[in-house]
Structures are given as C-alpha cells and as structure tokens.
Amino acid sequence: MADVLTSPVDGHDRDGFHQNSFPLERAATNSPAIAPEVATNPSQGPSPEVLKQVNDVLSSEIGITTLLNRLKASIATSKASRSEFASFLKKRASLEESNAQGLKKVSRATQHSLRQPDHRQGSFSSAYDDIVQIHERMSENGSQFASSLLKMHDELVELVNSSEQSRKTWKTTGLSAEHKVAELEQTMRKSKAKYDSLSDEYDKIKTGEKQTGKVFNAFKNKSAAQQEEDLLKKVQNADQTYKSHVQTLQTEKHHLETSTRPEAVRALQDLIKDIDAGLSLQLQQYALLSEKLLLSNGLSVSPIPAPGADPSSVRSLRNAVLSIDNERDLNDYISAQSSKVPHVPGDVKYERNPVLGPGPSHAREPSNQGSINKAPLQSHPPQSSAGPPPPSGPPSKTNTGLNPINPPMGHPASLGKNPTNFTPTGPPNPPSFPPSHNRTFSQTDYGSNSGVQTSSGHPPPAYTPGSPVGPPQLGALPFQSSQAAAAQHERQGSHTSAGLKSASPGPIQTTSAPPKPVFGVHLSRLYERDGLAVPLVVHQCIQAADLYGLGVEGIYRQSGSLVHVQKLKHMFDTDSQNPALDFRNPENFYHDVNSVTGLLKQFLRDLPDPLLTSEHHDSFVAAAKHDDDVARRDSMHAIINSLPDPNYATLRALSLHLYRVMDNAHVNRMNSHNLAVIFGPTIMGTDPSNAIADAGWQIKVVDTILQNTYDIFDED
C-alpha cells in the first residue's frame, strides 16, 4: 500500500494504458487529481491547548483506558467496513470478473463466426478484428481491476484481524499494570488506617484515659504497664507494614508511569493510526483503481499515440469503423470471382434442315442477341458512306452525329462504311431515359436493355419494315466477336448520342475518362466550364429533396441504393445535360429520394477541396470555440463572406435547403444538430491526424450556420 503513495509521477505512463497490463502499483502516479490527496494530510496540526489536554489524559491513569476505547471504536468501524465495504469490494470484483470474461467470450465468439468463409471479408473483417482487440483489452482491464479489488478485500480483513489481536494483547499488558498499582494503593491505605488506629489507642493509654473496645478488653487482666508495652509493639509492627506498602506502591507506580503506561499508550496510538490509515488508504485506492479502469478503457477505445509515433500505428475504435470501405470490399469480392466466369459459347445460328430445301437468302429472323449468319450480308455488299440513305426511312444514326469507327489493323471494313438500315424513333438530341439504358459495356446490361421502352414513352429503335437489306447483320462483320455484336445491338437499342468506339475481337475495353466530369472536380473549374454558380448536380438533388424528401423520416441519415447512386453519378459524369437527369420526375431517380441525398453527399465528399475550403478550416474551428452565440455567428459570417464565389453560392443553396429540412423536423426528425453531424465532415473535410479532435467543432460549425441561415444568407 505504501508503494501507491510513494510512486514517482510519470507523465508518459498514460500512453501505455491501452496496450500494457493493468499496473495497479502505479495507480496513484496516473491520477494527478487524486494522488496529492493521498500523499498529503489536508488537516492542520492541533492547537497547543488541545495538545496539553491530550498529554494530560494520556499521562493519567485513564490514558490506556481512553485509548483502548478509541481503538475499540476504530476496530468496530473497520469490522463494519469489513462486513460492508469489504463485502462490496468482493461483490464488485465478482461482477467485474464476470463482465470481463463475458465480454471476452462474446467478442471471440463473434470474431470466430465472422471469420467463416460465408461471411463478409475485406476491410470490414479487418476493422472488426481491431474492434475485438479493443474489447479484449477492456476485458483484461476489468479482470485486473477485479483482481485488485479481491486483494484489497483480503488486506482489509487482515488489517482488522491483526488490529483486534494487538488490542487484546495491549489491553492485558496495560490494564494489568494499572490494576496492580490500584491494588497496592488500596493495600497501602488499609495498612495506614490500621497504623493510625493503633497509634491513637497507644496515645490514650499513655495519657491515662479510660479506654473501651476490643483492644482494651484483651488487656483486661493486665496491668497498665503491660498494656502499654504490648500496644507499643503493635504500633511499631503496623508502622513497618505501612512503610513497606508505601515503598512498594511507589516503586510500581514509578515503573507504571515511566515505562509501562507510555509504552502501552504509544502502542495503542500506533494501532489506532494504522487501522484508521489503512481503512482510508483502501478507500483511496478504490477511488484510484476506479479512475484507472475508466482511463484505461477510454485509452483502449481512443488511444493517444506516443510522441513521435505514427498515428496510424494504433487505431481507435472510431478509426477502425471508419476504415470500412464497402465499395472496395464489393469490388474485391466480385473481382475474386473472375476465374469462375464461364466460357462464352459461339453465336447461335439457324441451320435449315436440307429436307425443307434451300430457303431465300434474305429470309432471316433477327436474333435476340443481334448476331446473324454471314450469308445475308454477303448477298448485299456494303454501301458507300457517301451514298444517299435508303429511301424507306429517315437518315441513319451515322448521319445524326455518330463518329465512324476506324477498323483495327488488318480488317477490311469499318462500321462507319456500313450504315445500318433502321429507323430510330425520337429526336437526335440526348433523350430522357432511365440510367439502365445508358451506354455501358456491362455484359449483364446487354440483354436487359433490349426491348425496354424509355421513360419518355419512346419505343426502342425498330427495323424499317420495307428495307431491302432487312435488319442490320452485325454478326456478319468480320472484325466483331460475339461480345462486340451484342454491344452493337445494345447501342442500336439505346438513345445515346455518344460516339461509338472501335470493336475488336476479345474482351471489350472500358471507356476513357468522361470529357466533362462533374464528380471530383473543383467548384471553380465547374464554374468556369459550365457557367453555373451552383453545380447542376447540386441543384437537381436539392430540387428532388425539396419536392419528395422533406417529409421522409431520417432524410440524409438514411442511405440510398449504392447501385442507384453509382448509376446517377456515371450519368452526370457522362452527360449532365441529359433530360433523364431532370429530378422533378421521380422515375429518373428510381423513386428513391435517399439515393438522391446520397448522390449529393457523394458529390460534396468527392470535392478535391472541401466546400468550406481547407484554407479556412482552422478559422472555422476557432470561430466555433466562441462561447458567445452572437460572436460565434458573426465570426463565421465573416469567414463565409471570404469564400470563393462558387463555394459561397453552393453553401448558400445547401444551407437554405437544409433549413427547409429543419422546418419539417417534427416529421423527418432531422434537426440542426442531426444534420450537422452528417454534413460536418462532409463539407469541412476530414484530416486523419486531427479528425477526432475537430469532429465536435465541425459539428458546431455546421450547426451554427444552419441555425443562423437567414442571418448569414439572403433568401432571395
């Protein structure tokens, strides 16, 4: 116990709480708020008057009795503490041990279950391993805390037992000496009384007074001289007895006052101080251990790296959760299945049975996959790209803006020199259609898009009934594989105005970067390119949320479909002017307003420079630390006014929209604080080095802006 009080203070010991064992011997060193109270006595010394009274009592014959009574009271208190506080320590230790073992057991069981092959792996599995390790450290802290409580219980019981035994010993030693002196004093008084009585009788005989009583009745038959002589002998004997009793009493009393009593007093005082200090120390140690447990658990959940160490070397619980990358896990899982992709068989061809005789060369039914026998194409040579279009229909798509395809090296023909004879319905401008009809090279989308009408009501392109060539014979092109033929059929069935890429045998190549991307582009670059202060994607998302999302519970907190968000993002990056991106029509965002809000948050997160800019990040955090609401609002207002024009306009539109969301908080349950929790790191950015420290201030910044929207921005 003394080690707890005298351990040197080590300011760096806190850094190891979450990794090391539970060092109870250093409990006081890690609690500067409590350790001074343990090591120092807050009470002042007694006054001289009190000291004199204490010395008078202790030096008197009641000193030992007084201290014995006081020691008895301390032992009684300790016994009560032993039966109550010690019982509390034992029960608390049992609860902590049970909780620690249960926490460790359930953590390991869950970890073992999630490591099964049929469960999700990747960043989620790695993050959960870190979470389990954190909980195991917390369970170890609990086990060490329980062990320390049991040790305290045993020490308290031992202290009470030893104090009680010592009290009995000193009670026997001290009181026996006191009793012996008291008995000698009583004997001395009796002998003195007898001596005084005989002296009085002898004096009366000498003076001749007539005496009566037992003594004189014994001398009835004796003469006066004989009586006087006998009485004198008795007086002399009584004098010797009285004198010896006085000497014995003086010797024992001197020994008691100079040796036995002070020794007993000191011993009893030490016992009282020991038991009182021991009980107080156990209480103080319990307070220190409780604080240590909480600190250790806190540093296990959110560790503080040592000076000069890599912050990423030790992950906190929050960092472990934030490290989960759902999109990467999905892509890794899908890419791992690439070896299981089945071999694509050759084109399905119609073979006429010879018993029916040869059929006409042009009587071919179009295949659902867009691949036809080569014979019909060979019977109709390719037309020149400079020739007039067929008279049976409007101009082909080659004349409406599609770039001719340059054939690969070694192939004799190109798709641009063989205009297909079909009549597309709808204008050549970018039509309105669901994202599933957008240009894509996904093998799955080829079949799913054929035969589906667009959202604007236009049917897919139909073949011209009177065409002498019939349906386009894409399967007959010598430089196209079956996959390229399917992709060409997909392009015929869609209403896109983008140029076609050259087709070649083998796997289809992915498209290059979009010419006018929207996501991941600086707001200033979007403003220079598009001439819109508020990006179109932000305007469309806010418009959809205002129309269809203000009454949705948990708007912006609920996650939309990741597939829908990615499709909408691809459409904005490909052609942001596409009429299918008019979100006033809920069909264009799959009747899922949460996907729209997810798209808006994705756009803000992908900005290379956050909406509130990295330059002003520290200024916003400093402004959020103002305690006065007006000063905080005015400071942020000044910083917002200094933002670049696109950032200011976008922030204004977003803030006015979120204020409308707040007005419907009684329905959607999204007040300013809930929205600030979501948009704080989204519009201010996240820096892993100070993400935890700034998280609360980021929320405060956005909360202040939303609460003072109409003080900072004009509604018009």
Textual characterization of the structure:
Keywords: Coiled coil, GTPase activation. Residues 1-20, 27-49, 99-125, 337-515 are annotated as: Disordered. InterPro entries: AH/BAR_dom_sf, F_BAR_dom, FCH_dom, Rho-GAP, Rho_GTPase_activation_prot, RhoGAP_dom. This protein has 3 domains: 2-42 and 58-305 and 313-318, Up-down Bundle (Substrate Binding Domain Of Dnak, Chain:A, Domain 2), CATH 1.20.1270.60; 364-512, no CATH class; 523-712, Orthogonal Bundle (Phosphatidylinositol 3-kinase, Chain A). It has 24 helices and 2 strands. It has a two-stranded antiparallel sheet with strand order 1-2. The chain is mainly alpha-helical. 57% of the residues lie in helices and 1% in strands.
Give a brief outline of the structure.
The chain is mainly α. Helix content is about 55%, strand content about 0%.
CATH topology of the largest domain: Substrate Binding Domain Of Dnak, Chain:A, Domain 2
- How many independent structural domains? 3
By DSSP, the count of extended strands is: 2
Work out the oligomeric state of the chains in this entry: single chain
GO cellular component, one term: cell cortex
Pfam families: FCH, RhoGAP
Keywords: Coiled coil, GTPase activation
GO molecular function: GTPase activator activity
